[in-house]
């Protein structure tokens, strides 16, 4: 059966290396050597100490606004982006400090320009802390955990470095599979079954190596340290109302009213003061494993379809949905989300610049939205791969010919299913890790009442709500005598009411101008929702993704006689051994 004609360009055109995959072909820069950027690099030299001492914000406010155009190469842009990710998220979330609702111009302006150059969002992402955040210990050594070190971390801990490096090792292990995926497209087109079996066998081996690397997460990354000390800094500004950022983050000095696609300024004369303030806010998801281009590429190549969480059965999308990869997702501009007013229709296009009409949509909006956080070239690779993918139609055609299959064709189906088994095993392990590292930790709570994060030492009521004081309010009210309330900087689950808002903050002013925003909502302490750093309700999403991978396998009507394994005697095992199962 002839497949689709491959429209893929060379991997290098997508900034992908046949050897290192989505990792850079050369190790990331360890430092920006241009003295012009010494203010950034010298701050990074003291980063962990400044954060620990609670003086990072003080240092950052003294930084000059540097011109991103002084960066001369892609490796320099990547290094600058990583540096600004570290400084910006450290500034916003702090250490034993209240969350900052705004980012100063010295960070916001260059970060936004550099993100635009790389085709990512100005927020911490998989590319920044994984793809561009490692160094080999020996230049001629392998890209595996025996030869890797992290360039920088928020906490300065071994646990955080190991968390990033395991993910680097997974990317390196899966890198050779990308070239085999491209070969498989051509071999399907040529109906070369023998070569296709070799391609799938190689992909299976890469997936097995990815599983081995993932299983090592527990060796040097403690679940408690990860959840309470590391994970908060990987959060973005979307779905962060209970962390003190209900509207997102203000990027000071960045003109949100400029539309780069139409090259026009918006007419703001009709907007109220509150609506103009809303235009300053941006919402972005944080770093997430769902931003890995490698996992997306494997899903696309094998035809794994992901549907909205809770909807396993696919519904035929409308024409309008087909044209919009990010349909029904919240915009990054808070004003558009809350008021429904757009200053330009082009804001709704969400970078629809590459013939999206021909693109096969993946129905899970969250997964598709995560592509915005990938480097531009990698995103383009996935879009082109979706058009060229022909492996699953080829396998479905073999399934239809079941009674007339040759032994080679049966082996081909087994090789295809074997790869899906490995991909499902990867997702099984991921579910186990998330259960141990996130869900269980959220249920247990911190070892100390405030989780090691910010404590509001001012006196406040137990259930804080923003209300304007009447002119004759007695200053010696009951609220003044109420005990102080611990204020967790980034509540991993809903542990208390939302943080109090400073009267000098933009949020406080907006709450008075637009009380319908409900910025002082009570957070239900019985809430069972545990969100990932990408902002999604993590466990249902991961479990469904795993099950959808299993559903993709090609089932033959003829049953296979497999002897049921004997059930082992139940015994207690360590969580390290459990992860290795």
From TrEMBL:
Residues 306-342, 467-488 are annotated as: Disordered. Keywords: Heme, Iron, Metal-binding. GO terms for biological process: 'de novo' NAD+ biosynthetic process from L-tryptophan; L-tryptophan catabolic process to kynurenine. Heme b binds at residue 430. GO terms for molecular function: heme binding; indoleamine 2,3-dioxygenase activity; metal ion binding. GO terms for cellular component: cytoplasm. The keyword Heme applies. The keyword Iron applies. InterPro entries: Indolamine_dOase, Trp/Indoleamine_2_3_dOase-like. Signal peptide: none annotated. SUPFAM superfamilies: Indolic compounds 2,3-dioxygenase-like. Belongs to the indoleamine 2,3-dioxygenase family. PANTHER family: INDOLEAMINE 2,3-DIOXYGENASE (PTHR28657). This is Indoleamine 2,3-dioxygenase. The lineage of its organism: Eukaryota, Fungi, Fungi incertae sedis, Mucoromycota, Mucoromycotina.
């Amino acid at each position: 059966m002839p497949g689709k004609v491959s429209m893929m360009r060379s991997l290098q055109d997508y900034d992908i290396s046949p050897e290192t995959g989505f990792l850079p072909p050369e190790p990331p820069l360890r430092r920006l050597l241009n003295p012009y950027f010494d203010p950034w690099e010298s701050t990074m030299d003291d980063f962990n100490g400044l954060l620990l001492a609670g003086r990072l914000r003080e240092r950052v406010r003294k930084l000059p606004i540097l011109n991103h155009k002084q960066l001369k190469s892609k490796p320099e842009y990547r290094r600058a982006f990583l540096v600004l990710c570290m400084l910006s998220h450290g500034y916003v979330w702090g250490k034993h400090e209240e969350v900052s609702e705004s980012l100063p111009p010295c960070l916001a302006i260059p970060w936004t320009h550099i993100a635009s150059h790389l085709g990512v969002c100005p927020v911490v992402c998989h590319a920044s802390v994984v793809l561009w955040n490692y160094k080999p210990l020996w230049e001629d050594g392998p890209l595996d955990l025996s030869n890797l070190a992290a360039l920088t971390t928020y906490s300065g801990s071994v646990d955080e470095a190991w968390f990033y490096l395991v993910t680097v090792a997974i990317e390196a292990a899966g890198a050779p599979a990308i070239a085999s995926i491209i070969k498989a497209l051509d071999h399907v087109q040529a109906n070369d079954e023998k070569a296709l079996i070799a391609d799938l066998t190689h992909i299976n081996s890469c997936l097995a190596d990815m599983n081995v690397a993932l299983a090592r997460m527990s060796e040097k990354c403690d679940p408690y340290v990860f959840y309470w000390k590391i994970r908060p800094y990987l959060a973005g500004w979307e779905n962060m109302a209970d962390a003190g950022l209900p509207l997102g983050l203000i990027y000071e000095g960045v003109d949100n009213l400029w539309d780069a696609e139409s090259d026009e300024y918006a007419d703001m004369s009709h907007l109220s003061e509150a609506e103009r303030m809303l235009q300053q806010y941006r919402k972005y998801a944080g770093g997430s494993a769902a931003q890995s281009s490698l996992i997306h590429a494997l899903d696309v190549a094998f035809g794994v379809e992901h549907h909205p969480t809770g909807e396993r059965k696919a519904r035929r999308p409308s024409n309008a949905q087909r044209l919009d990869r990010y349909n029904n997702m919240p915009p990054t501009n808070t004003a558009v989300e809350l008021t429904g007013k757009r200053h330009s229709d082009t804001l709704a296009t969400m970078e629809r610049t590459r013939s999206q009409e021909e693109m096969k949509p993946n129905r899970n909006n969250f997964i598709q939205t995560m592509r915005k956080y990938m480097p531009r070239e990698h995103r383009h690779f996935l879009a082109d791969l979706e058009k060229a993918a022909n492996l699953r139609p080829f396998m479905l055609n073999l399934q239809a010919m079941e009674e007339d299959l040759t032994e080679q064709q049966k082996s081909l189906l087994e090789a295809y299913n074997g790869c899906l088994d490995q991909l499902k095993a990867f997702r099984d392990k991921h579910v186990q890790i998330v259960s141990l590292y996130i869900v269980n930790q959220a249920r247990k709570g911190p070892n100390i009442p405030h989780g090691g994060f910010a404590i509001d030492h001012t006196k406040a009521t137990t259930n804080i709500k923003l209300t304007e004081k009447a002119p004759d309010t007695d200053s010696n009210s009951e609220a003044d005598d109420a005990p102080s309330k611990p204020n967790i900087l980034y509540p991993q689950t809903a542990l208390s009411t939302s943080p109090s808002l400073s009267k000098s903050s933009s949020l406080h002013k907006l709450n008075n101008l637009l009380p319908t925003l409900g910025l002082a909502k009570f957070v239900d302490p019985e809430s069972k929702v545990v969100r990932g750093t990408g902002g999604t309700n993590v466990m249902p999403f991961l479990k469904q993704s795993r099950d959808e991978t299993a559903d993709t396998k090609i089932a033959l009507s003829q049953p296979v006689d497999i002897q049921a394994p004997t059930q082992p005697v139940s015994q207690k095992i360590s969580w390290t051994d459990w992860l290795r199962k």
